[in-house]
Amino acid sequence: MMLKGEKSGLPAIVGTMVAALLLLSGCQQTPKAGNIDEQRLLAADKDADNWLSYGRTYDEQRFSPLEQVNADNVGKLGLAWSVDLDTRRGQEATPIVVDGVMYISTAWSKVMAIDAATGKVLWQFDPKVIGAKGAHACCDVVNRGVAVWKGRVFVGTIDGRLIALDAATGKEAWSQVTVDQSKPYTITGAPRVVRDKVYIGNSGAELGVRGYISAYDTNTGKLVWRFYTVPGDPAKGPDNAASDKAFADFAGKTWNGNWWEMGGGGTVWDSIVYDAELNQLLIGVGNGAPWNHRARSAGKGDNLFLSSILALDPDTGAYKWHYQINPGETWDFTATQQITLATLNIDGKPRKVAMQAPKNGFFYVVDRTNGKLISAEAYAPQNWAYKIDIATGRPVERPEARYADKPYMIYPSGIGAHAWFPMTYSPKTGLVYIPSMHVPLTYSDDVNYERHPGRWNTGVSFLAPPEGAVPGKDPAERRANLAKQNYGALVAWDPVKQKPAWTKRQSWAWNGGLLSTAGNLLFQGDPYGFFHAYRADNGQELWKFQSERGIMAGPITYRVKGEQYVAVLGGYGGSMGMATESEWMRRPTPNGVMMAFKLGGTAKLTPLPAQVKPPFAASKDNFTPAQLAEGERWYFTYCSICHTGPVNPNLMRSALATDAQAWQAVVHGGALKDNGMISFAPYLSKQQVESVRGYVLSQASKAGAEGQK
Ligand code: CA
After folding, report:
1. How far away, in angstroms, is 228 Cα from ligand 1 center?
2. DSSP bridge partners of 25
3. For residue 693, what are the domain limits?
4. Which of 75, 395, 495, 656 registers the highest number of CB atoms within 10 A of its CB?
5. How far apart are alpha carbons 350 and 347 in whole angstroms?
6. What average pLDDT does this structure show over 376-382?
7. 43: CA distance to ligand 1 center in Å?
């Protein structure tokens, strides 16, 4: 800060000398790329120019003190630059900005360094993930970001590696395989760094893996500690890991049946937060594998540490405390969602809290000194619990929600009332802004549950809503009507009063990540391609930009040479991008793009080629009703999860479906495995593959006959 009159009071000669010295030091010391250390990360909140870690600060509030762009002038925001990406697979990363350089990860775990003021690409890194590995990604081959520390950039890859790159050149410094690559593990989450240790989790609980978090030495890449979130096969004894004691003391007893055979789940696929005040690492733990508690743990036991916030010692991985959100988890109710730290004034006392809006629809405020629940109220419509009992910390469940005797249409579902999409807490408004969703699903006990190694294993049958739950004369009509009732909401939540200050209902469900700024602004993308700015105090829309492709990722803001930028990755995908049909979106969706905006920006996006929707596949081939029924079964078992959204080809419009031989070559023979379309020979016979083709053609013909375009 400069005092008034300071400059004019200085003799001219002193000013010249200072300028000369600055110039000299500028010549001698080239600023080191990716220059982040402990002091810098601890003081990140005061470093308004930069976005040094995933959630901007260790507290992961995603609030920026910058206010050059504000509610009065945001209407003048325009594109400053853009970088076209190489794929239309989903883009979920939050960029890191260090001293004018932006580091991003993109789909297929690639990394890019970009001049944050001009958009010039400085270097690119491709870990060359084998395309077939994409079939293990439950929810697209996305990556949520990198970590930067002491001149290195760290990225987790979809095939389970953790890689350290030189921040100046993008050259690989070391690479470590962090998972058993024979199992369906993937990594989509951003690493975090504390004091020369880099932390990484993994994903794969939908397919069947055992979750854990690992700490690696940032210099050497050597494993320092590992904490498993669920117990292993008891016959094999302890793991020789940081988690052994907790499982021996109390957590192991909360499991039943042969859970280890499908891994048990509990992947740490998103939130990892360092609580500097209390020197602890808070991690969010995911759902069970399989989902169904009866199929996983004989329907008995809390199954620690599934669906929990877990506090660990960052240096040793030793257990400190846990808070379990859903004991006996059975719905894909993860507690992996963003954990945000703050000190809130509750009942007249400052309380150090961890806040989370997990999938299950309740907003949790937890005392982070001991893991005790302070308060929990529903931030989204929900029909699975009467309330959360504050004294015990446990939900009071509606018994029918466990779908034991009959199907239950539940909301939120495994899609979540909130998933990985970043939320933000503004200390200025005192509100947490949640990108929430309303996507009910009907769960039914899969009593004939068969394991399909390497594919989805939930133990749940997903049915059309039961009669009376939504309008419609038959299951197909009810399913279609249900999809039309999905929506999203931008919820401005008061974490002290545990109620919304305001809610903005949105017509889309798959709801983009959020950023709040001291300029009384909120930024958020949507699946229609718009990037919005809202007033943080009341939600009024002030500005929007059409990016031509869906935006899901968390936006950031930073400053270079005194000029403030707002940046976000565009690119639709993720689980709903793969699994849900949305006729209002471009089809197929265009490649992703990295965009930065500034006041008065006049840049233009690269024009996109005209999108032509391929016609419905048509063929004279005949199929028996038995073939069509079998095809329908396998289509919904294996195909619909990746081929319903705009990211992957719509099979009803695939020319391959008209050619039996070409269809076999791809589906059974694996001809397109390098794109992620693996061979289904381990799961389906050639006859079954042909039945799926029959079902696809019958649906294409039906859609055509109904006059769909
Ligand atoms: Ca899950």
Report:
1. 17
2. none
3. 625-705
4. 495
5. 8
6. 98
7. 34
| Domain contains 489 | no
Tokens at residue 197, please? 């240790």
Tokens read off for 459: 């133990």
pLDDT category at 391 given cuts 50, 70, 90 is very high
313 in catalytic set = no
Longest Cα–Cα distance of the chain, Å, equals 95
Residue 698 forms part of a structural domain: yes
**Which residues pair with residue 703 across a beta bridge?**
none
pLDDT band at 152 (very low <50, low <70, confident <90, very high): very high
- Domains: count for the chain: 1
Is the pLDDT at 196 greater than 60, yes or no? yes
Structure tokens at 675: 């794109």
- The letter for the amino acid at 195 is R
* pLDDT tens readout for residues 101-127: 999 999 999 999 999 999 999 999 999
Determine, yes or no, domain membership for 450: no
Which CA distances in Å does 331 have to 167, 335, 411, 534, 613?
Answer: 41, 12, 10, 33, 36
Instruction: Please report, as a single letter, which amino acid is at residue 230.
Output: V
Give the pairing type, strands 372-378 and 514-517: unpaired
- The catalytically annotated residue of 47, 270, 332, 526 is 332
The phi, psi pair for 261, rounded to 5°, reads -60, -30
Distance of CA 476 from the midpoint of ligand 1 (Å): 26
Residues lining ion ligand 1 (Cβ < 5 A) are 287, 332
Residue 656 Cα, ligand 1 centroid: separation in angstroms? 31
Residue 680 belongs to a domain with what CATH number? 1.10.760.10
> How many Å lie between the centroid of ligand 1 and the Cα of residue 289?
9
Distance 332 CA to ligand 1 centre (A): 5
What residue type is 469 in one-letter code? Answer: A
Write down the pTM of the prediction.
0.91
Separation of alpha carbons 224 and 240, rounded Å: 12
Q: Among 115-129, 247-261, 639-653, 666-680, which stretch is predicted with the lowest mean pLDDT? A: 639-653
